[in-house]
Amino acid sequence: MARPKKATAELASIEDANSALHALLMAEVELEKQQGAMDLARAKASADYEEPIDKQKARIADLTLQLQLWYMANYRTLEEGDLKSKKLHYGTVGRRLSHPALKPLTRAWTWAAIAVKIRSVYNARFFRAVDPEIDKELIRAELTEEQLATVGLKVKQDEDFYAKTDRTALGAGE
Questions:
Q1: Which candidate, 149, 161, 166, 171, places its Cα nearest to that of 22?
Q2: Where does the pLDDT of residue 108 fall: very low under 50, low under 70, confident under 90, or very high at 90 and above?
């Protein structure tokens, strides 16, 4: 666990606290200005590159399609032995099997219908069991402190400090 940081100054009066809260407000506003400027710069940079990137993506998709159509039209002459590819000067083109995936047999079979059928034939053999999860909200709402203690629980509530700034104060003094 990290050691708590030490404050750079010690507040001695309500005036000091008020000044510190004002400084906090001004720091938050300045941070938001800086983050806003950074977000604008990022958006501009993205906009500058978006069109050329989209053009290159479209070009890549078109060239890939061209190569696929050419390969599929000529695969019998290109493939040698068990190889389903052809090494060219700038790379390799070919075919490969995708990972096996289960798909519904026809459009009439939905995944819900498949689940019902699998359950009727194989029971729960092909269904994942979901680990039970403790409903902490329900426990806290329904059990007393003594009941909680018997199952090894207690309710703990910490008190945390907060400082909330008021943006309407900016127009009055600044």
A1: 166
A2: very high
